[in-house]
Structures are given as C-alpha cells and as structure tokens.
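Blinded run. Sample ID left blank on purpose so nobody reads anything into the name before looking at the predicted structure. Input follows.
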Amino acid sequence: MRKLSLLIIISITNYLIISAQELKDIDIESYKEYTNNFTIAYTDSVINFSVTDAKPKKLNNETFYFWYKNQDVNKTQGGYVGKLLDGPFTAINKSNDLLSQGRFEDGVKVDEWKFWDREGNLYSLLNYKKGQLNGKQFIYHKNNQVKIKSNYRNGVKNGKELVYDQKGRLVLETRYKNGLKHGKEILYQGDEKIIKKYKKGQLVNED
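Blinded prediction complete.
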C-alpha cells in the first residue's frame, strides 16, 4: 500500500513539473496569438482589440479594413494582410482616459463609435454599417453641446445637416442628397436668414 502511494506521489510530481515547464515555455505573445486578444502600447496610447481568423468572401474597394500583423494595427482601403480586427475595440491614453471605443466586424467598423479629446470630453459619436458612416452622426463642442448633427447613408451625407453654436442655437441648416448639397441651405444670423438653393451640388439661387 505504501509502495502504491509512493508511486502516485511520484507520478503527480512528475506531471506538475512537466506542466510547469510547458507553461514556462509559453510566452505572453504566444498566448495572445492563441486567444486572438491583443494589447498594444504606443508612446501616447494603449489599444485593446481582438482579431478573427475568418476571411470575408468579398472585399469592398471603397471600404477601409483594419488588420493586425507584426504587433501593429494597420488600415488600408479595399484590402488587408494579416488578421482582421473583430469584436470590441478600446483606445486609452497614458492616464487611462478613453480616446475611442467601438466595435469591428470582419475588419470594418460597425455600429456606434465614440471618440474623446485629450481632456476627456466627448468629441464625436458616429454610426457605421459595414465600414461606412450610416445613420445619425454627432460632433460636440467642448461644453458637451451638439455642434453638428448630420445623417449619412452608405458613407455619404444624405438628408439634413444642422450646425449649432456653443449655446445650442441653430446657425446653419443644409440639405444633402447622395453627398451633394441639394435643396435649401439656411444661414441664421440673429433675426436674419440667408437662404441659398442648391441642385446636385450646384448653387442655383441665393436670397
């Protein structure tokens, strides 16, 4: 019985030694490569992200793809080399303040993205679909008042764009169609309105 117990102890000890050696041989970068989760520290910021081994069936030549290779993240239009970013993305500065936060899907930006300035103020809130700006977009003044409110469709302005001053007063209203000014553009100056009319980006009338 004592012999059997001794054999069991020796076997467990050998297993622990081998396991410890295997863990020692696996460095942090190899572990990250295995899990597809990464952290990169730059001189002024740190980014956290994940990647995918999957490859999209078709690339869009008008879309920017974000990809990881050789311990760096790159961005190219219509193509990539390495692994595409996929999942949550966060960038912080050296003081652990947020700089940007959003999500990738197959290397392109999707859904809501937020961007902050160096002082921690929310600078912009943008919406993406398949890597293109799509839906409502907001740019902010430093006092958190909306500065620009616009609408995009498939990466270009479409619909009404409103510009406000720091007190929240409307100063400019412009209509867009397929990325071009189309319809009325109204400049508000106190009680006065200056109206211009555009058609497919061309000024056709001014009041």
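Unblinding after everyone has recorded impressions. The chain has two helices and 18 strands.
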